Amino acid sequence: MSHQGDRIVTGSSSIRPGQVKIWSTATGEGLFIIDHPDKLSRPVAFSPDGAEVASACDVEMAAVTYDSRTGQLRHVFKLAQPEYRVAYSPDGEYVAFGAEDGDLELYDTKSGTFLAKFDGREGSGMLYEICFLPDSRTLLARSEHGPPLLYNSDDVLRMR
Asked: Which Gene3D superfamilies does the UniProt record give (predicted)?
């Protein structure tokens, strides 16, 4: 759901493969469909200002961002492996993609530039979620086993 609460974004993996859909929360109607280059378009997320949508692709090992009002493609990110989680920093400067094994990739949202890769802890199991803390610089990753991990995007180091 957008932070403004006016729209929902969904990705598909089976019913309508390769589609990202934007919905109105006021009417429940689909506003438009973005045809995704991959057969699987999950996960999906809105940027904090609601202007952009990010989606990761399982098969193509890429992620994309779109203008959430027009569906126009903004950036394509070539990823090191299939990604299963996505999160924007609260200030909207960064987007992070997390792989099933816990590795994270960080990108600049304006330029699409790759900034850093954070290695997940070996043996931590499947990555459940990623999110940025309010400072927009600290990334939290929670996996199946072990404590949550914190990464600092300024230092590009795992903090704990």
From this structure: YVTN repeat-like/Quinoprotein amine dehydrogenase (2.130.10.10)
* Residue 80: per-residue pLDDT: 78
d(CA 98, CA 130): 7
Domain ranges of the chain: 7-122
Burial annotation 125-156 (CB, 10 A radius, 16+ → b, else e): eebeebbbeeebbbbbbbbeeeeebebbbeee
Contacts of 27 (CB under 8 A, 6+ apart): none
Task: Name residues of the chain where pLDDT drops below 70.
Answer: 13-18, 36-42, 58-59, 121-123, 155-160
Class of the CATH-defined domain 7-122: mainly beta
How much is the pLDDT for 153? 78
Provide the pLDDT for residue 15.
Answer: 55
pTM for this entry: 0.85
Pairing of β 41-46 and β 30-35 = unpaired
DSSP 8-class letter at 4: T
Q: Which one-letter DSSP state was computed for residue 119?
A: P
